[in-house]
Amino acid sequence: MTLSHQYRAVLFLSLLALHSCNDGMQGCIDKQRVMSVLRQMEKFLKGQEIRFTEGLRIMKSKLTSLQNSVSKFPQADQSSPSSTCPALEAPTHGKKFGSKYLVGHEVHITCSSGYHLVGSGTRVCQENGSWSGVSSLCKVAGSSQCASNPCLNGGTCTEGVNLYKCTCPHKWNGSRCQHQTQTAPPEWSVVNDPEFSRKPRCTKVDQAQHCSCDAGFHMSGTSHSSICQDVNECEVYKTDNGLLCAHICVNIPGSFRCSCPSGYKLLTDGRSCEDVDECLTQQHNCSRGTTCVNTGGGFQCVNPECPHLHGNISYVKTSPLQCERNPCSVSSRACHLAPKTVSYHYLSLPSNLQTPATLFRMATATAPGRPGPDSLRFGIVEGGHARGMFLMQRSDRQTGELILVQQLLGPQELSVDVEMAEYLDRNFQAKHLARVHVLISPYKF
């Protein structure tokens, strides 16, 4: 029902109500009030009708715009023509399915009963205008080139038109995979030694023989005379950094083992070497009165003597590795300037130790109740061949450090003397000397 029809129905009902009432009857609607209601209803319905008409106009305008924009799109017949492929014919004794030769379309080929398909059974039209795959041919059943399994040693047969092709596995070649690739034995292969050679394990699978070797061996020889030769892991993993073994690698059938030089032991990882401390384990032969000093791969028995200086300066041993100066006379300035204590230190280092490396620390000790020095001076005593190899520097107010600044190649031994001078109120008090003996191992461990 339209708005005008709704308007007429409401007006008819109002007039009917007005006609059924008498002027004097109670309960009838006042005529003026009815007319007022009718006028309001008429205005309301006119407003609704105007809005409805405006909505229809707007919808028609949008629909027209949409139709105009769609009409601007290119039509299917306006697009560029698709590429096509040349027509394909069904092979003799075969059928072709598919009649469209546009890009992306497929054509399928099948053979009649009693024939088998050689070539591609499905051809796809490509964007360059050519068909994928190869030409198809229907051949009499039983005449397959691959039916006789012409490919040997695990080769895969692929049949073509009047021919076949063998795809050979690794180490095999030839038209039928009948020849094993011949190469010279690698450098890491152990040959001409029966202890390092074994027979391979061979089985036949689909009329082809497959052979394999145990871990640590590799296949060598031909298909008829193959043999498993040992892999020399020591040569395979040979590097300057000694990643396989810290010292010596010994090849054994199917594996390897590491060995260490005399005086060293093999660690639980089976590759690293560690020095044996003969002094700690009591494996030395040092006599009484001497001190055992552990070195890389061995030991030394030492008994350092106290220094012999001119004049009235003398020393006495207070321990196997330390001497103290005897009391000086008040008038002997040279005695007071001589070292008050002389200590001996032995350091065992690996060859080519990474630098810089702190080797030795020196500090002062003051007897209880006596004032200690308020300043210390550290240095390397001039002389010897240690110049440029070591550096003496302060690590804190009371400690000095001897630092190795140049890598040392073993085996060799060298000594360096370092001293510590004590001062109180800028006045010299005493001097202490440490003689450090550095023992460089021939090995890097």
TrEMBL record:
Residues 1-27 form the signal peptide. PROSITE patterns: ASX_HYDROXYL, EGF_1, EGF_2, EGF_3, EGF_CA, SUSHI. The keyword Cell cycle does not apply. It is found in: Secreted, Extracellular space, Extracellular matrix. InterPro entries: cEGF (IPR026823), ECM_structural_protein (IPR050751), EGF (IPR000742), EGF-like_Ca-bd_dom (IPR001881), EGF-type_Asp/Asn_hydroxyl_site (IPR000152), EGF_Ca-bd_CS (IPR018097), Fibulin_C (IPR055088), Sushi/SCR/CCP_sf (IPR035976). It comes from the Eukaryota. Disulfide bonds join C111-C138, C168-C177. GO terms for molecular function: calcium ion binding. Its main location: secreted. Gene3D superfamilies: Complement Module, domain 1 (2.10.70.10), Laminin (2.10.25.10). Keywords: Calcium, Disulfide bond, EGF-like domain, Extracellular matrix, Glycoprotein, Repeat, Secreted, Signal, Sushi. Residues 142-178, 230-274 form the EGF-like domain. The keyword Lipid metabolism does not apply. Residues 83-140 form the Sushi domain. It holds the Pfam family Sushi. Belongs to the fibulin family. This is Fibulin 7. It comes from Ameiurus melas.
